[in-house]
Amino acid sequence: MKAYPIKTRYIKKGENFIPIIVEAIKNSGIKLEDGDFVVLSEKMVSTAEGNFIDESKYKPKMLAYLTYYWSKYIWGYVLGKIFRLKEEKIKNLRNMPKRESLKHKQMIIEELGLLYSLKPYAEGGIDLTNVPYTYACPLPKEPEKWASLLRKRIKEELGVDVNVMVSDTDATYRLFNFYFTALPYAIKGIHILPGIVGFLLARIIELLKLGGFAGCTPLAVVGNHNLKIEELVRIAFIADRVHITTKNMGEVLKKHNSYIITEEILEKLEHTPVVVIKMKEEFKGEKNGM
User: Fold this and answer.
1) Cβ contacts of residue 234 below 8 Å, gap of 6+?
2) Best CA proximity match to 131, nearest among 289, 265, 288, 284
3) Alpha carbon distance 259, 175 (integer Å)
4) Where are the alpha helices (DSSP H) in the chain?
5) Among 99, 124, 134, 158, which residue is least crowded by beta carbons within 10 Å?
6) What pLDDT was estimated at residue 249?
């Protein structure tokens, strides 16, 4: 298989992305075939749903302080080394800004629960990158609905029967033939071990070499495929690897002389929230875990 990122403009909050994506695929020069995969980023779907949370409205309480110090000091200075987190992750944990992090942890506790807040980062798939203002972007509410709508529209306009996946960059792990994620939900066949439970188990089995990173996490898949979980998480992983994302938002803010991300800034960035996976073409890539 081979992956092709599809460039679109920035999809705004509450905007219907279906016609935008179909038009972008038409203009890409890529010829879809029956059985190909069209993979959507979860953040674009959530944005289209208007599924944002304003973290500025949350008032930190005792548990927020507990989970903030737990992430910053216990994971940043002790567990991060033991469980071999990447140095960049450890550095980010040690440099967590207190005021913003406390509000974030309080939001996680109220929206998802303590088990998710105890996870040192990427709690419950809630995204803070490339999101405007003081918003956080949780997982989509109805990923299967949007995947079905896009598949139907592609069949009507392009005459091909594709599979449509909504995926999240967060990991799915494998322990022998048991697949699991620390996210709040995933497709059937991937078990949910919420927050810190799944995260710790993943680290332990990686240290013991009993399994580990299997791929990224499909949240919904619609279509006539007969692929196994190991193949679906690999497709999600390949799609995640070829997405073009802006990683250093600090430089972007400096360029625009702003201290906060706005929709106007996001509109000027390059966005590839859609990836076409051609199932009959060979993909030559390098595996990379967390």
Assistant:
1) 214, 215
2) 265
3) 43
4) 18-28, 42-49, 62-69, 80-82, 87-94, 98-111, 114-117, 143-158, 196-207, 229-242, 249-255, 263-267
5) 99
6) 56
Residue 255: the pLDDT is 67
Here the tokens at position 254 are 């400096």
Per-residue pLDDT at 286 = 44
What Å distances lie between residue 68 and 52, 102, 193, CA to CA? 22, 6, 21
pLDDT of residue 74: 97
Encoding tokens for residue 113? 């629960």
Amino acid letter, residue 32: L
pTM of the model: 0.90
What the block records as the tokens of 183 is: 């996210």
Query: At residue 155, what are phi and psi to the nearest 5 degrees?
Result: -65, -40
User: What residues of the chain score a pLDDT lower than 70?
Assistant: 245-259, 281-290
Answer whether 142's CB lies under 8 Å from 97's CB: no
Distances (CA, A) of 275 to 36, 217, 232, 237, 270: 11, 15, 14, 11, 14
Q: Which two tokens mark 189?
A: 């066949």
| Whether 285 contacts 275, CB under 8 Å | no
Predicted confidence at residue 289, as pLDDT, reads: 40
